[in-house]
User: Fold this.
Amino acid sequence: MQNLRNIDKQSLLSQDLGELLTEAIVQGVIPQGSKISEPELARRYGVSRGPLREAMLKLEGIGLVERIPHVGARVVELNCQQLLDIYTIREPLEGMACRLAAERLTQRQLNELHDLLEHHQQYLDDNHGEAYFDQQGDFDFHYRIIKATGNQRLVTLLCDELYHLLRMYRSTSARQHARPKRALQEHWAIWQALNDRDGELAEILMRRHISRARKVIEQLSSPDS
Amino acid sequence: MQNLRNIDKQSLLSQDLGELLTEAIVQGVIPQGSKISEPELARRYGVSRGPLREAMLKLEGIGLVERIPHVGARVVELNCQQLLDIYTIREPLEGMACRLAAERLTQRQLNELHDLLEHHQQYLDDNHGEAYFDQQGDFDFHYRIIKATGNQRLVTLLCDELYHLLRMYRSTSARQHARPKRALQEHWAIWQALNDRDGELAEILMRRHISRARKVIEQLSSPDS
DNA sequence: CTTCAAGTGATTGTCGACAATCTAAAGGTA
DNA sequence: TACCTTTAGATTGTCGACAATCACTTGAAG
Assistant:
């Protein structure tokens, strides 16, 4: 496990550690709510506590861990309310991203999006229950639209921060993406609007897409309706 | 300057340093684009490089400095495009915040908002050109609405991250808040909608409020219109 | 004069160690 | 038994030092 010492170019130990720990947390290898012991992790990865602490700082910034002074760091426990909060933020932001993307996506990017959806479609039609690719394809679609806005800060905010938490939730929650086919249909509709350069419609469709997903979570959290 | 060693309770050196440096950068004491030397700052504040590096990591997370491996950290240079990007993000987010706040603000909070605006109004009427308080009051208004949503992640995102950059811009750019009275009028209109529990209108007004401010910046960046 | 190479100085990244603080077990008292 | 104090252990926060890398000067060749 401790083959970290990358002879590679200028890769920083703290940076590599950050990515490694992010994956470990997101995929549930380090479970939610578990305490993170600096000496233990440092031994496990064969590094000093310095770079590890710096990596933890980064994870705290993303919101994957919570640190309490003189006590230590724990992996966050993502309850339903926090997840709903994330969707509340995503809805207007990604809606806006769609509107901008409708203006700025190149024809080549639109074609690539089309291929992505077809690829995704085929996977679902073949009835691979493989949640991994489904999730990958789902996120990829959203990522590309967000990046197409050209708003670097928006990209960082959504892709580098919030989406880690979503991936974590989907990895650790037993039920994975309750409605993959319906979601893909909605992606197709969004793509159509983008391809028509209809930003207004694309925004509405994306907002509904996220809003529907949010409602599914809402019902899970309060099944007394 | 180096009276950092707080005998206070459990204040972390890295944490205090982070807040201190944030203020220094936001207020322009450390100018935009300037290089940040770890040994120099460490000497100046009488601390080791460890906590200082951790503070820098935090600042990088906020977006106040940029770090390049093996080279060092620089204070970001906020060009107009990046500022526009921030407003692009704020518009839908704070609009949404207003809609939620219209439902969740208590009467007491609404009254406090009212007092805040009256206080602000008086300052402007007395023709204090004091940009500082104007800015303070402006931000306060937005802060309170955002916090009223109860969405902690939204609060962190806007108040703890994006708003530092705005404060930095207003402190360092010569022209400060070109239209304080007009902006206050818009705040009053928003308050009115909030007080009427008209979330839909409050959202629209807030979006326009931010959109107008964005247009002012847009014209500054490209005066050839 | 320009351009490239080597060398020097400073800065960054990483490490191990020590002090301050917290956690938990042991023991004593009501 | 319940509760508080003490104490031992471990963990976190901070420090100073060393190795790796970069920036800049010096010098030489074309």
